[in-house]
Amino acid sequence: MCCGTHVSNLSHLQVIKLLGTEKGKKNKTNLLFLAGNRVLKYAEKSYSTERSLVALLKTGPDDHVDAVDKLQKSVKLLQKTNLSLLRDMAVLITQNFKNDPQRANFFSLHKKEGDNEFMNIIANEINTEETLVFLTVGEEKGPGLFLLAGPSGRVADMGPRVLEMLQGKGAGKNGRFQGKANSLARRGEVEAFLQQHCKHHTSEEE
Questions:
Q1: Is 74 within the bounds of a domain?
Q2: Which residues form the Threonyl/alanyl tRNA synthetase SAD domain (predicted)?
């Protein structure tokens, strides 16, 4: 009855609260319980958490599970809508670029809310045999993702330098170099480096 607490008298326990069971090793069942002062501390902590949830969810304790369930469903729906809008935006961005008669042979874009799919849609829509594409998503001065696409030889040459400036990890093949950036703080430097490379390449062709 002392539940392994080894007291000299059971009255020292004050109270024992059985919380439930969980599956243990070797077909055993673990019994979860609290005893003595830990029950009081647990009650105090639970009450404090409950009050915080009441303030956040604007509902009583009995409705907390339903309220969180509704929130999770709303978040999933918003995420789905957001992804759909990002895809549409990526297509519009590339159409706008391709319809510009004054377009250069270099395209650069940063989108905080973007993802890998957003960048890949843009890179797939633009003719990267003619245009060098540099895309980043994530925090402007913090971590994020990047994609460099263009003529395979040039991308292979420039990829490691871009990786170094973005303090990132990544790999490239077939005219694509992409990965994670620990910091996008030097994005402007990468852009300038790539633009300079494009100008140098264009003058060589002429």
A1: no
A2: 1-29
pLDDT tens for residues 23-41? 999 999 998 988 888 899 9
- Please state, in angstroms and as integers, the Cα–Cα distance from residue 73 to each residue in 54, 63, 67, 76, 80, following that order: 19, 16, 10, 5, 11
CB-hemisphere CA count at 13 Å for 78?
A: 6
Predicted confidence (pLDDT) per residue in 81-131, tens digit: 998 999 999 999 999 999 998 888 899 999 999 999 999 999 999 988 889
| Residue pointed to by tokens 């070797």 | 26
Q: For residue 16, what pLDDT is reported?
A: 85
On whether residue 200 sits in a domain, the answer given is yes
* Residue 167: C-alpha distances to residues 61, 126, 145, 182, 190 (Å): 47, 27, 11, 5, 12
* One domain for residues 163 and 119: yes
Domain containing residue 56 = 10-63
Q: How far apart are the first and last CA of the chain?
A: 92
CB neighbours of 140 closer than 8 A, spacing ≥ 6? 110, 112, 184, 187
Give the angle subtended at the CA of 179 by the CAs of 110 and 97, to the nearest 5°.
35
Question: How many Å apart are CA 117 and CA 83, to the nearest integer?
Answer: 9
Report the distance separating Cα 148 and Cα 6, nearest Å.
66
